[in-house]
């Protein structure tokens, strides 16, 4: 009967919740060990400047090679790392690893590192940046930190002063995934920035949707007017590339130019991205 069915459904729902909680617990336990078991590495995706058609840098993207699960994408463990506080240790490793690897590249290309909102709020970020640069010998001008808008929602003047501190070190600051978070034009008035990264979703939509095309055009122009260069993320086709070039976007990133790849290690392809690939 209906009542019985209802009870069954509640039980199934409870079981589902329980499974999800158990799964989360397992993932968390594994994540706690991942660092000491050397399961992390960084993949680097090239950044191409459009005026010279030249690779000018790379974004470091965290990869977790799990012995049973395989490659766990950052979207499925970064939020957990943030909730559990593990992001502090992981984020610090990412920073040191990225600076260390970039310092060994035979060129002047920059490395962009994603910094989570949790790290950004920590008073230790500045000293971690300084320490990573000192330890690696990487010149500060070759390091860029990427922040999403969610990192920039709180106390405006406080954020502006942290950004200014970072830039005083000579490190560059990029706003990541622009347009997808709590975008506010006030941010652009208030915060010192070196780059605006236009989210992939706009790039994809711009080809088919005239409004999205208008939005990308306006953001590129906005960047130009406030003296902050724009970079479009997730460029996959020649058509998208030409569209962005025509709009005057300064730089692009995406599978068309290069997928994230290791730059060192045993893989013979690993050294490939060090040469200009596009
Ligand atoms: P993000 O910083 O916006 O990085 C861009 C994401 O888009 C990367 O996904 C990249 O692999 C993917 N991508 C690049 N080009 C293309 C393309 O042409 N097509 C498509 N479909 N995708 C493209 P990934 O590596 O899975 O990283 C996802 C997100 O995880 C990143 O988004 C970033 O927010 C976060 N993340 C990655 N590494 C770190 C890290 O070291 N620390 C922190 N805090 N977050 C990280
Ligand atoms: Mg990023
Ligand atoms: Mg992004
Ligand atoms: Mg993104």
From TrEMBL:
Q: Which domain of life is it from?
A: Bacteria
Q: Where is the EAL domain?
A: 24-274
Q: What is this protein called?
A: EAL domain-containing protein
**Species:** Jiella mangrovi
- Shown residues within the full chain: 512 to 789 of 789
């Amino acid at each position: 009967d209906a009542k019985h069915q209802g009870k069954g459904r509640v039980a199934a729902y409870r079981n589902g919740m329980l499974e999800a909680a158990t799964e989360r617990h397992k993932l968390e336990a594994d994540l706690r060990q991942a660092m000491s078991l050397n399961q992390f590495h960084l993949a680097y995706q090239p950044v191409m400047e459009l005026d010279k058609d030249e690779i000018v840098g790379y974004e470091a993207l965290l990869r977790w090679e799990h012995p049973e699960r395989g490659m766990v994408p950052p979207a499925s463990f970064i939020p957990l790392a943030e909730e559990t506080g593990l992001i502090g240790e992981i984020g610090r490793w990412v920073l040191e690893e990225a600076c260390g690897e970039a310092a060994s590249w035979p060129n002047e290309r920059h490395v962009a590192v994603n910094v989570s909102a949790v790290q950004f709020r920590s008073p230790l970020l500045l000293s971690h940046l300084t320490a990573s640069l000192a330890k690696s010998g990487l010149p500060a001008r070759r390091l860029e930190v990427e922040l999403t808008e969610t990192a920039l929602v709180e106390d405006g003047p406080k954020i502006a002063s942290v950004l200014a501190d970072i830039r005083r070190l000579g490190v560059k600051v990029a706003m990541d995934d622009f347009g997808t978070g709590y975008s506010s034009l006030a941010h652009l008035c208030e915060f010192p920035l070196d780059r605006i990264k236009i989210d992939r979703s706009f790039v994809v939509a711009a080809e088919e949707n005239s409004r999205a095309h208008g939005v990308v055009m306006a953001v590129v122009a906005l960047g130009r007017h406030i003296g902050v260069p724009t970079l479009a993320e997730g460029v996959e086709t020649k058509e998208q590339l030409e569209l962005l070039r025509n709009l005057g976007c300064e730089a692009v990133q995406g599978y068309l130019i290069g997928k994230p790849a290791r730059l060192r290690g045993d893989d013979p392809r690993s050294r490939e991205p060090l040469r200009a690939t596009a």
